[in-house]
Amino acid sequence: MRRGIFYLLVLLAAGFSRAEGTTLPKRQEVLGQARHMLDNWSISYVMGGNKLGDVRECEACNQCLGAKKPDKDSRLRACPTCASCSLDCSHFIHEVFKLAGLPATYLTTALMNNLGADALLKKYALVDVGNRSQRALPGDLLVYDGHVVMLEKKHPKGLGDIIHVTSGRDLRGPGLGIQRERRVAIDHYRGPLLRVLRHVDLVRELRDFTLSRSRLSDAKTE
Description:
- It is a single chain.
- This protein has 8 helices and 8 strands.
- It is α+β, with helices and mostly antiparallel strands.
- It has a 6-stranded antiparallel β-sheet with strand order 3-8-4-5-6-7. A two-stranded antiparallel ribbon has the order 1-2.
- The longest helix is centred in the C-terminal third of the chain and has 22 residues, at 200-221.
- It is globular and about 60 Å long.
C-alpha cells in the first residue's frame, strides 16, 4: 500500500504544473456539482446534518432555525425537523462526491486529519497530498482543525476561492449554509492548513493525463 501511495505522489508531482488550467472531466464534474448545490439548494448548516431533502423539508428546517435561532451546536436538538434536510461541512463533501459519481464513504474532519495515509486511501479513497497549498488543485479538499472546504479556484500569492458549508459568524441566514468565499488565504484560512486530500479517481485522471502528455511529447521529439 505504501508503495502505491508513493507511486501516486510521484505522478502528482510530475503532473502538477501541467494540470493547472487544464480541463479534466471528473474534476470538472466534482466542481460542477459543488457549484450546482451552491446555486440551487436552500439548505442550512446543522452540525451532524447529513441529508439533502426535498424543497418542503428544507424550507421546514429553514423556518424552524429562523424562528428559534439556536446556536450552531444545538440546531439539530432545537429543530429536529432539520434531520430531513441539512448538512455540515464534511457531509457536504460526501454529497458532492456522490453526486459526481465518485466512490464516497463518509468520514469526519477529525478522521481526515488523524488517519494515516494508508487508511485514508484504503477505506475512503482519499490520497494525502501533504499540507502545502502549492500542491492543491481545484476539486481538492483543504482540511483545517474542525473544518473542510473544497478548493474551487487558485489565485496567485497563496489565495483561493472555496465552496463549503459553514456556520457561526460566517452564516448569512437559514438556507444559506452552502457558500463561496473568494480569495481566502489557503494556508491559514481556519488556522493552519493541516492536509490537502484528493479523491483517488481524480489522482488517476491526473495520472492518465500526465502519461498521455508525456507520450505525445516523446512522439513529437522522435
